[in-house]
Design a protein that fits this description.
single chain, mainly alpha, 7 helices, about 0% strand
Length: about 100
């Protein structure tokens, strides 16, 4: 897959907006559209981290989960802060507990 296709897949998988993707990858829109993301290892890592979870949850859960506050806070905020370790922990919690809303 190309860098642009990978970026589009991550956007779709997590329900990200374009500006959010740019912040998360620390890249500008031209870099993303042209696929010039070889220097951004975050993209491949995030795709790998989310692939297994996506395969084990119902369709549409990841985008909804991303914007719901959990034990680690809102996963989207972790990504926007480029706290990838925190995001990985949030994914592990999702895998372990499932998508729990409320208390």
């Amino acid at each position: 897959m190309s860098g642009a296709a990978d970026a589009a897949l991550l956007m779709e998988r997590l329900g990200l907006e374009e500006a959010e993707l740019c912040t998360i990858l620390d890249a500008d829109p031209i870099e993303i559209l042209s696929g010039a993301l070889d220097h951004r290892p975050e993209l491949g890592i995030l795709l790998a981290m989310t692939a297994e979870v996506e395969a084990n949850v119902a369709a549409g859960v990841l985008p909804r989960w991303l914007r719901t506050s959990g034990p680690e806070g809102r996963p989207v905020d972790l990504l926007l802060a480029r706290d990838f370790e925190g995001f990985e922990t949030a994914l592990e919690t999702l895998t372990r507990r499932g998508f729990v809303i409320g208390g």
